[in-house]
Amino acid sequence: MIIKTVFSDEKHPEESLGSVLGYIPGLSEAVCSEEFLSPQVLRTMKEAYVTLSFVTPEEIKEVNSEQRGFDKETDCLSFPMFDIKDGSFLEIPSAGDYETDEDGNEALCYGDILINLSAAETQSEQYGHSFEREVVFLAAHSLLHLFGYDHIEKKDEKLMITKQKRLMAALGLAFDDELEDVYEMDDHADEKSSGAKEEDDFIPAGTPCAHCGTVALLGRPNVGKSTLLNCIAGMKIAIVSHKPQTTRTNIRSIYNTEDTQIIFTDTPGVHKPGTKMGGFMVERSFRSAIAADVVLLIADGRFKEPGSVEKRLIALCRENKKRVVLAINREDEVGRNALLPITANYSQLYDFEDVVPISAKTGRGVDTLLKVLTGLLPEGPRLYDGEYLTDQTEREIAGEMIREQILHYTDQEIPHGTAVIVTEFKETADEDGQDEYDRSIVVIKADILCLRKTHKGILIGEDGKMIKRIGTAARKNIERMLGCKVYLDLYVKVREDWQNNDAILKETGLSDTEED
User: Fold this and answer.
1) How many CB atoms lie within 10 A of CB 398?
2) pLDDT tens-digit readout, 206-228
3) Residue 251 and residue 257: Cα distance in Å, rounded?
4) Three-state DSSP class for residue 463
5) Least C-beta-crowded within 10 Å: which of 31, 235, 497, 516?
6) What are the pLDDT digits (tens) for 323-365?
7) How far apart are CA 148 and CA 52, in angstroms?
8) Backbone torsions φ then ψ of 318, nearest 5 degrees
9) Is the pTM of this model over 0.70?
10) Which residues of 112-127 are buried (b: 16+ CB within 10 A; e: fewer)?
11) How far apart are CA 400 and CA 241, in angstroms?
C-alpha cells in the first residue's frame, strides 16, 4: 500500500517534515499485516493507496463544518472509502471501485487522512514528547480508522488502543510503558500458542486436524451460492451474475484454519433441465449433496414459503439422511425480523442442524455459519495442503471470468448459450522473481462458443466494441487474480447445439463422467 502525501500548510513545508516522512513507508508496511488486516483486505494491498494531507487549522475547521456539521478545529480527520470493521470487509469492493492511474494500472483508494500540523505541534509540547512522534501517532490513529477500528464503544476503544501501541512499537516510537504492554501481550500470546504451529507455517495434506470434511452448497439458481463461496475464500473463485445457473460445474473452495479444513462445493442451481448440459448440471448437484458430510441449503430470504426446488432438495436430503444446515440469505435486504416466519416454514419440513441468517454480499453472519459447520465435521486428516484456496486452476478461473463478463454485458440477449474454452495459457517468468509464481506476463487465448450467427454478431458488436468491452473487463479481473500483466485474445465461434455435443461438453468440463 502506498501512502501519498499532500502539503498545504505553508508554516510546515515539506522540507521541514523530513524526519516525519521517513516513518510513513514503515507505517504502511506495519499495518499491512495479519496483525491488523484480514486476508481479504491484505490481498488488495498491492494496488491500494491512501492520501495523507497535512493541512492548516483553518482547512480542517472548514472540512469539519462541511462534512461533519460542526465548526471546530480538530487534530486529524479520517474519511474511509469502504465498509470495514476491525480490519475486515463488511462488503467486498467490486470491480467498479478500482481506479485507473495515468499508467493504466488499477488502484484502490482506501480513503483520505487530514492532519492539522499546528494542533500536532501544540499537543507535542503539552504531552512532553517530540513533534514527529505526535504526527506519526495521528497518522497511525487515522489509518486505523480507515480500516474500521474505532473508539466509540468501550470494547472497540480497547482494541484500537492495543493496535495503536503495536503500530508505534513497530516504528520504534512507543513509550516505555507502551512497550511493556506490547511485550506482555506478546508473552501472553506465546503462552496461548505454545506447542502450536506458526500461522504462516506450511501445513501439508494428511496432517490431523480437529474438524475436516466436505460441505455441499445447494439451492435454487441465483440464490447466492457463488457469492457466499467467494466471500469465504476472500477472492473470486466462482463467477457471480444476476442471471440464474451461472455456475455449471462443482467448484471446490477450501477454508483453512489451524485446526479446521472445510471443502465447500458450489453446485449448479437446481432447475428443470432443457438440454443435455442442463441435465449434467443438475445431476452433479445431486451427486455432490449425497457425497458430502454436511449439506448447506441456501434459501432466499425474500420468499416466505419454500418453493418446489427447495422441497425437492429437502426430500433428497431426507432420503439420504443428510445433516443439513439452513442458511437464509439476503438478511441485509429484508431484515432479521422478516426471517422468523421463513425459519418456521422451513423447520416444518426438516429437522435442520441449525438455521443461520446471512448476507453473502456483505459477509454478515458468515463467521457464525462457519462456526456452526465446523462443529458438525469430524476429526480427520487434511485433504488438501493448508495453503490451498480452491481446486480450480488459474486457467479454469480465467475462463470463468471471461464468461462472467459475457453474462454481464450481453444481458438477456445471450443468456446461457455461450461457453468459453481457454486454448492457450502461456506464462513468462519475471527475471527478478523469487519463485515460479512471479510472472511478468501471461498470454491467454480463448474461444467463445455461441449457438447462432446472430449471437456472434451481438458478442462482437459494432466495430468490435462489445468483444473489446468484454475482454477489457475480464482482463482486469484476471490481472488482479494473477498479480501480473495479462494479454487476452478472444475468438467468437458458432457451434450450433453445442450444449448437446458430448465432445464439447467434455472440453468445457461438463460431461456425465464421474468425478474422482
Assistant:
1) 25
2) 788 899 988 888 888 778 877 78
3) 20
4) helix
5) 516
6) 999 999 988 888 878 888 999 999 999 999 999 999 887 778 8
7) 17
8) -65, -40
9) no
10) bbbbbbbbbeebbeee
11) 11
Question: What are phi and psi for residue 19, nearest 5 degrees?
Answer: -70, -35
Give the pLDDT score at 394: 77
401-439 per-position pLDDT tens digit:
888 788 778 765 554 577 888 888 888 877 766 555 567
Rounded Cα distance, 483 and 489, in Å: 18
Number of residues that this document lists for the chain? 516
CB 114 within 8 A of CB 63: yes
Phi-psi region of 442 (alpha: psi -120 to 50; beta: other; left: phi over 0): beta
Cell of residue 174, nine digits: 512507543
Say if residues 24 and 3 touch (Cβ distance below 8 Å): yes
Please give the pLDDT value at position 416. Answer: 59
Kind and range of the H or E run holding 4: strand 2-7
Give the model confidence (pLDDT) of 69-93 as tens digits. Answer: 878 899 999 999 988 888 888 777 7
Asked if pLDDT for residue 240 goes beyond 70, the answer is: no
Question: Can you tell me which residue has the cell 473470486?
Answer: 236
Torsion of CA 455, 459, 464, 468, to 10 degrees: -170
- Interior CA angle at 107 toward 102 and 112, to 5°? 105
Q: Can you tell me the distance from the alpha carbon of 188 to that of 422, in angstroms, rounded to the nearest whole number?
A: 51
Task: List phi, psi (to 5°) of 147.
Answer: -100, 25
The overall longest dimension of the chain from CA atoms, in Å, is 79
Q: For residue 294, what are the β-bridge partners?
A: 215
For the stretch 250-275, pLDDT in tens is 456 778 888 888 888 766 544 344 44
128: number of Cβ within 10 Å: 6
Distance CA 93, CA 176 (A): 39
User: pLDDT per residue over 96-115, tens digit each?
Assistant: 777 876 666 778 899 999 99
**Hey, which bits of 236-316 come out as E strands?**
251-256, 260-266, 294-300
- Grid cell for residue 228: 457466499
CA distance 267 to 283: 10
C-alpha cell at 345: 416454514
DSSP letter at 232 equals H
Q: Residue 217 CB: number of other CB atoms within 10 A?
A: 28
CB 279 within 8 A of CB 184: no
Distance CA 319, CA 269 (A): 20
Q: In whole angstroms, give the CA distance from residue 261 to residue 255.
A: 6
Distances (CA, A) of 320 to 294, 309, 515: 11, 17, 19
What phi, psi does 406 have (nearest 5°)? -60, -45
What is the distance of C-alpha 421 from the center of its chain? 26
Question: β-strands 48-55, 106-116: how paired?
Answer: parallel
H helices within 128-258, ranges in order? 131-146, 154-170, 176-192, 225-233
Q: Which bin fits 473, alpha (ψ -120 to 50), beta or left (φ > 0)?
A: alpha
